[in-house]
Write a structure and sequence with these properties.
Elements: E1 8-10, E2 16-18, E3 26-32, H1 41-52, E4 57-63, H2 75-86, H3 105-113, E5 129-132, E6 139-142, H4 152-158
Parallel strand pairs: 3-4
Antiparallel strand pairs: 1-2, 3-5, 5-6
Length: about 160
């Protein structure tokens, strides 16, 4: 696949789409989970989105149940949780796999473009973050322990 924008995804409501609507924006793509030690990062992600969305920034959340089954709910459960607990307004997508043979092609592409520590490809836990430049080419990867607030400097450079 030549660009990230061509990947087919499903919204949390089940509509099939691509990432094409986000072309030209700075993206933060995150694999999320509702029952993870890092779940409170939803709050920080929402704050980043609210602060920078007018400047062309979007957070894209992709729930994943591959890590200790920390996202067991349905799309409806996920939507309710994110709205009620964290007032999430950024786009969320259907639950996907982000590692292994069944990893979604979007995350396979992100892992190729944004390697982890020591050049590793594999995603090791929920809330791994991929910061993508406006052209969709440059991808920076951040570990789950990196808080959304710690991304501000990198984000400012891309905006």
């Amino acid at each position: 696949m030549s660009t990230l924008y061509e990947h087919r995804v499903r919204t949390l409501e089940g509509a099939e789409t691509t990432l094409e609507p986000y072309r030209g924006k700075v993206l933060l793509i995150v694999n999320t989970a509702s029952q993870c030690i890092f779940t409170r990062q939803y709050d920080g992600l929402e704050k980043l989105y609210a602060r920078y969305r007018e400047r062309g920034f979007v957070v894209l959340g992709f729930p994943c149940n591959q890590f200790a089954e920390q996202e067991p709910g349905t799309s409806e459960d996920i939507a309710k949780f994110c709205e009620l607990k964290y007032q999430v307004s950024f786009p969320l997508f259907e639950k996907i796999d982000v590692r292994g043979d069944g990893a979604h092609p979007l995350f396979q592409d992100l892992m190729d473009r944004g390697r982890g520590i020591f050049g590793t490809r594999v995603i090791k836990w929920n809330f791994t973050k991929f910061l993508v430049c406006r052209r969709g080419k440059s991808v920076l990867r951040f570990a789950p322990i990196t808080t959304p607030a710690e991304l501000r400097d990198e984000l400012e450079l891309l905006l």
